Amino acid sequence: MSEQYLLEALVYGALAYLAFRYTEEILTCQFSKRSVALAGWLILYTAGNLIWSGALDYAHISESSVYASFLRLMPNALLLLILQNKYFHTNWPRQVFALASFIAGWAVLRFAVSPLSYVLFDYWNPFWTWLVDYSLTHGWITAEQLLAAMGLINEAALMGVLVFCRLVQLGIFALYLWLIQKYFCRQDYELSWTESLFLISPCITVLAIDVTLRVMAYSVDNSALMLIYYRVPETLLLLPLVSLLLLGMMVTAVRLFRGVVQFKEAEAKRLLLENGITDIHRQVAEMQDIYGDMRGLRHDLRGHIESLTAYVHNHLQGEQNELEHYLTQMKKTTERLDFADKTGHPITDIILHQIRQQARRHQIDFAANFHYPEESPYDIYDISIILNNGLKNALEACQKLPPPASMELRSYAKGHLFFIEMENDFAGELNWDEDAALPLTSKTDKKNHGIGLANIARCAEKYQGSIAVEIVPKENRQRFCLTVMLYH
């Protein structure tokens, strides 16, 4: 029976690997070398389960006992919990779910493959009888040789069926774990205990049904355990079907939960976007007032300076040089109130002026060639949102780099299309949000940040447009390139 113990060890080794990969996707690792952690996990998990299984065999606790599964699963769960705390950061809501979903999935799969082994063994006997008759009839083998090899052939057939069934079981289990981790919420999502209980409820239900199926599958008759397959052949199809449906139920529960999480996050982002747009509208209105006041102030100051200059020339000849120097400085001060960027709209002038001032303070080179389209069909509020969010993101990225850093803004029109391009020096890598097809924010407060690009994309979609993001190498640095396309 050494072959069966070897098979059992290999199965535990495969389970250990699947458990590590599964836990790795749900919890945050705290090890530095993955290969060392994986080796330790494999050794401890496999050895622990083999020792406990040997103890149960020594105590003559049958695998087919109704409650034997609990004697095997509970130490397995405890061992997994210890390994989780050793190699991963503690997060009890996530740990409990990972543990319950793993244990429940493997437990219920017993009834998905045991009918398969029964069917294969049932077909082996008539096949073996036919093979013996055919071999003896055609003289391929003598009766003495057949008797000598019969034990070895039967043992090989038994191992072949067991290996095949275990491979099927492990394959289905691996697919189940892959679906769970695919549909589970991101690692940065803070799973609450209430949400964890919602997720493990199907797992507890599956474990309860597993016990029920074991009670149904075995019946006591003259102190001998008789499989229900002999009495009700329909169970050969029903038990695997129920097992697979239970696995599907757990996967569906995780998928539904992810939908709820995505809805909550989308609702929170929508509120942030609406608040941001309201703030932009208020800022634009304030900018328009400021721009009007500054135009009037510049006009009045120039008039006063011209009057003072004329008065100095006509009445104060002796102090002319000193006063002219003073008036020249006043003219330069007045000219500073003029915006360097003439974009064709006062609001975009102010936005570029503010960004340019901030870039100058941080020694960032800012080049702008932006022109607001004449007779533009685009709402100035939407253009303001695009410029404000895009340029502020570029400014923040450049501030993280040692000087000199640079950023650029360009715009051009092609037919009915209007393009806005923003580039800036960039260090690091982009992590993408698969659902939104946009880069994720690198800030720790992800709930209140990371909506800038989403805001820009929303404005582009309003005009049947889109945005494109790419990282391109340039000299010794990377460049973050954002292109916004608008249609009219």
Topology readout:
Layout: H1 2-26, H2 34-58, H3 68-87, H4 92-108, H5 110-137, H6 143-183, H7 193-217, E1 218-221, E2 224-227, H8 228-231, H9 235-315, H10 320-335, H11 346-361, E3 364-369, H12 380-399, E4 405-414, E5 417-426, E6 432-433, E7 438-439, H13 452-462, E8 466-474, E9 477-487
Written overview of the protein:
The protein has helices at residues 2-26, 34-58, 68-87, 92-108, 110-137, 143-183, 193-217, 228-231, 235-315, 320-335, 346-361, 380-399, 452-462, and strands at residues 218-221, 224-227, 364-369, 405-414, 417-426, 432-433, 438-439, 466-474, 477-487. It contains 13 helices and nine strands. The protein is an alpha+beta fold. The model is unreliable at 220-226 and 444-449 (pLDDT under 50). The longest helix has 81 residues, at 235-315. The chain has two domains: 2-266, no CATH class; 341-488, Heat Shock Protein 90. A five-stranded mixed sheet has the order 3-4-5-9-8. Strands 1-2 form a two-stranded antiparallel ribbon.
Which short descriptors sum up this protein?
488 residues; alpha+beta; Heat Shock Protein 90; five-stranded mixed sheet; 13 helices; elongated; kinase
Rounded to the nearest angstrom, the distance between the terminal CA atoms is 78 Å
Strand order of the largest sheet: 3-4-5-9-8
| Proportion of beta-strand residues | 5-15%
Helix content: 55-70%
Radius of gyration: 37 Å
Low-confidence stretches: 220-226, 444-449
- Write down how many β-strands occur, each being a DSSP E stretch of 2 or more residues: 9
Task: Report the structural category.
Answer: alpha+beta
- Which geometry do the CA atoms define? elongated
